[in-house]
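All the exercises in this workshop are built on plain-text protein records. A learned vocabulary of local backbone shapes supplies the integers on the structure line. Once this layout is familiar, the rest of the handout is easier to follow. An example says more than a description, so a record of this kind follows:
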Amino acid sequence: MSEETTNKQEMPEQLSDILLVLDKEKMKIQAVKSIDENGKMETVDPTKKNQNQFMRVDKSGDFFSNFFSNFFSQLKNPTNFTFFKVPAPVAAEKAEELQKHVDKPTPQGEKVLKEYEMKAEPRPDKKQENQNNMATAQTTTEASEYRYKPEQIDWDTMKNLGLSKEYLEKRNLLDPLLRGYKTNELLPIGINLGGSILRTDARLSLQQGEDGNVIVAIHGIKKEPNLHFEFFGHKFTDEDKKNLLETGNMGRVVNLVNSKTGELMPSIISIDRLTNDVIALRTEFIKIPDEIKGVKLNEEQKQILMEGKPLYLEGMISAKGTEFSATVQFNADKRYVEFLFDRSNNNQQAQTNQQNTQQSNQQNQPQEAPRTFRGKELDYEQYNKFKAGQTIYVELKDKKDQPYKGYITFDKDTGKTNFEFPGQYKARVEPAETHKTQTAVNSEGKTNEATKNVQEPLKSGQQRPKNEKQQEQQDNKPAKSKGRKM
């Protein structure tokens, strides 16, 4: 895999560490799941089957230390337990390794246990009886969803791109950036190259540089996804390429390889439909909802979605209260279950460029408008009008590269784009406008400025003078005499 290709790839998520605990009475290692308001800790077996239940905390050193200090201070009988911090991707394997060293103590095993052990003393300013402890733990857990702080952002760089904190907040784009996500829409940016300025649309994200500083990453629009090279050790099969190009999702879990550590990372792969980037998400970060549009998922259905596969669901209820069926699938870029509206039901799988509904933990959001239509990429102004539901005029080319024109309108409810040729559009719109004007003249006593001076009776629907004589009347010119000159 070339260095150039490697640099274009995005690493799957590695956001958190897992807290393991050794019960000194039972001498058994478990994964921490939660702690209740009475200071009682809930644990689960540290197996891959239970990994979605593990308590995850931001792996940042300072943050983890603060969180653990809070956690430890509210724990009932904290001296009964020994805690360990391990990387989330290998939590199950590390738990098994630590358990072996607990079962058969050796000097070498003691060193391994010490390597992962977390130590903390109850904070003197916190009492276990304090009713605010649970609230503190909940707030800390929620705060762990934020990877960055506003003050970490290089706002001078943002300013050079034509962006500001106020602008990002107004567009509701700052919050996803601070959580470590890309902006959920394209932004117009300008890059000063010295002698010239490059203006383009791009998604932005924040990343941590090797020096620890937060940098702004620009994700420009690519002509097409790069599926011809290996992606973190994975070579795309013909079936992989077909699925990614048709549905945006590969449809299976594969082991990607961390190029720095050699670690295997079970992940799903999708296409960023706004930029055509190839995006991977580790399976440990997949969250499947219990219910989708009124349909409760059973364990088998959840497992299908966990494996990145498409799932056909019937009997879902739309926001308008109508029943519908569709294929759903987890998208690695969006990080939620999306709808795939297919053109045929032969195999009940998605075969189109889909309009997606924001589903997951914040389900039932409006459909996402596509950036391109029949190969035509909309500019920033067109796209903003289009996604707002306005009708826009476009110039397109057919399969033989012959130009044609028309009007397109995006339907947020169905997620579909409606196209009309100019004749169809005028036939639909102009009669409606004519009727509206005529109603205003006849029923509301309003004046049609284009014909107000015409003395002859107007025909139904007439909006302007029909001949030279009526035009002269409208212009207040004397009509030409047809009599003979005496």
Notes: Confidence is low (pLDDT under 50) at residues 1-8, 121-144, 343-366, 479-483. The CA atoms of residues 107 and 142 lie 39 Å apart. Residues 372-420 form one domain.
